[in-house]
Amino acid sequence: MEWVSDGFVGKEDVLNDRFISAKPFPHIVLDNFFSPKIKMVKSALLKEKFYPFDNDLFQFVQTDDIKNSSNERLREFHRFFSSKEFVGFVSKVTGSKLDSKDMSGFVYSDTDYLLPHDDRLEGRKIAYVVNLGSDFNERDGGALQLFKGNKVVRSYSPKFNSLVLFKVSPKSVHQVQEVISKKKRISLAGWFHG
Amino acid sequence: MVKMQEWWDEEVLEQFNRQYLEHKNTTVQEFLEEPLKLPRLVKDFNPVCFSYSEAKIEKRFFPKEVERFVSKVIGRDVILSDCRALRFEHRDYIILHDLMPTHKHPLVLLHHNPDLKAQWKESWGGYFGVKIEDEVVAKFLPCKNAFTVFDAKGTRNYFKYVNHKAPMPVTFVIATCKPLTKNG
Asked: Cystine design at A148: which of A137, A139, A153, B62 (Cβ 3.0–4.6 Å)?
């Protein structure tokens, strides 16, 4: 898997242990997950057309499904992400039998957010985020936050080249905290279905 | 109990009534003589539904003259019930959620906000959004001392997340206009 950094392939069992034992619901954050080629994906993504999405639940800009992109670099990454090899890797890490997936690009700018929800929709098994923006710290907002009941119990500030996976279930309540700086929270995200 | 301005005559009331019938809502500025004295508001939070501070309001918060005013605007006799004050500060919101009922009656919104100096910007969030199915049919931005009557029948309402650009929290009193029955 040329897109994946050394140290992950062949470690699926260890990663699965981390995934299923994570609280408040199964998830994992893999830093520096992709090879340096991922930088080209970021620059290709930023050439895509983004559309504003704004309602009671969220505010951000989003691309169409990346599978329809005319950009060869993005399509190449999409092909890899959809490959049997990679989907098999994610299936082992998450312990879920997965097949198709969808993928869109997202940019959260100052004041953008995604309020708490559980992501449940027919067929969605594993949610994923590929973080492509510059590193955030707590003062920037934009963290992926996981809830247990009414409390945020895990908070992950986006880091460039990290892959986040979590299991979609009634427990998977999460939000993207409002961005409160001039930094852009850039990502590819979607769901593996099964 | 609140005390409203009494400067409107029949002609003005007819104008509000026409506006309500045409646009399904009307807003009156400078509604109360004096700022409201609200009870203590208590934070309530259910992440997938809402985040706000709330106070239940006593039954006779709105005097008869306000009910008469609303009845004139709507064009039929109503009483104001299910009255509550809601304050939204940075990070507060109401999401449309499965348990939220579809309204059956008109609603009133009393905009409190005595310290609001400038016009509220939509980009700050902090407004009431009115939806019919997936379509947003109205947005009521916070004002200072104003009173909105809107035809909420068949609608559901959300409250747009208040972002960090908003200069202050906003407070509303919301009530339902129930038809006055023969028994009162």
From this structure: A153
